[in-house]
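Minutes, project check-in
Item: structure for the 142-residue chain
Input as provided by the requester:
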Amino acid sequence: MTAKIAYDEIEVGTVLPAQTFPVTRATLVRYAGASGDFNPIHWNERFAKEVGLPDVIAHGMFTMAEAIRVVTDWVGDPGAVVEYGVRFTKPVVVPNDDQGALIEVSGKVGAKLDDNTVRVDLTAMSAGQKVLGMSRAVVRLA
């Protein structure tokens, strides 16, 4: 696969399509099994509260993975992501109900770089709080 977005057609400030990702307790159990991260703060409400959390929280790497989907869906090629990093600022709290939580992600091109690459700045929110800080990806375009 190659990127479907042409470098010459992109301007600084280009807004990527925003997306919302639902997270339920079942999602967290499936992610724990796939990742091997069975830390009880991600599935056991009693334990999470005993260690000072408001409730079960989503895995940080899960949150990070959901956020980058805005970029990979936009560019059309996950392999076009050259670099990606975030700071974890707040946890995604996932209540034990049928709704769970939502991770709302938006992004825009923050800079045009060398070698047909751009820096995409992401904003990830849940329950009105920013859950990822300094969330940036460098992406190679066509």
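Outcome recorded: The beta strands are 15-23, 81-88, 101-112, 117-126, 129-140.
No further action items on this chain.
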